[in-house]
Amino acid sequence: MGRSKDEVLTIRELSIFLKISKGTLYRYLRSGLIPGKKIGGRWRVLKSEIVSFLKGEKRSSAQRGEENQNQLQFWVKKSK
Question: What pLDDT, in 10s, does the model give residues 25-59?
């Protein structure tokens, strides 16, 4: 199956990508500094959101919500 336009990262993957500890990453996610979403009690983050965050780009929460919903639907279908 082909890869999605956007990759969903776990805490471990994001920690490696950002080169920060998992503890720091959890703190940033809980505070809202880094954009992420809890799904089934576990954090998931769109890689494109992190890249935008690192570039200093700002997007509205409505845009992020729509993109997150589209990605979640793809991810759920892919898992079945």
Answer: 999 999 988 889 999 999 999 999 999 888 887 65
Tokens of 4: 């999605």
User: Dmax over Cα atoms in the chain, in whole Å?
Assistant: 35
Name the 3-class secondary structure at 69: helix
Q: Where would I find the H helices in the chain?
A: 11-18, 22-31, 47-55, 61-79
Q: In the chain, what are the domains?
A: 8-79 (1.10.1660)
Sequence-distant (≥ 6) Cβ neighbours of residue 68 within 8 angstroms? 37, 46
Does the model's pTM come out above 0.90? Answer: no
